[in-house]
Structure formats: C-alpha cells, structure tokens
Amino acid sequence: MTELRFHRALYRGEAVDEAIKTFDRYATLGRAEEDDYWVVRIEAASEARERRVADELSNFALGLTIRSRSA
Predict the structure, then answer these.
(1) What pLDDT is attached to residue 69?
(2) pTM of the complete model beyond 0.85
(3) How far apart are CA 40 and CA 30, in angstroms?
C-alpha cells in the first residue's frame, strides 16, 4: 500500500476528491482525514502501479488546486 499526505494549507479538499474520482479505476483508493492532512491510500496489483497512480494523482490534485486558486 502507498500512502499520500496532502497538507490542508496547500491543497484544496475538492481537488483531492476530484483526483481520487479520476484515478479510482486504476487502483483501490481510500481517503482519510487527519488534523492537518488529507490522506489517500492506494492499493494496486503491483508496487510499480501504486507508485504510478500516486504520482499522477498527486500531480492532478496539485493542478486542480492551482487552477482553482487562480480563477
């Protein structure tokens, strides 16, 4: 399992949720909340696939956050 942590001061929750919806067909994704972070857990058939989904999901969430802040 791979875990991503998105700091609430940097990422918008809506962006993280949208990224999860976009990539959920490629892996099993779970979301949890901590005081300062949204935590996304990724499970896939291989570690390589988990890492690839994690990288793409992170980039997508960041892009959505940037886009929403500049709008």
Answers:
(1) 82
(2) yes
(3) 6
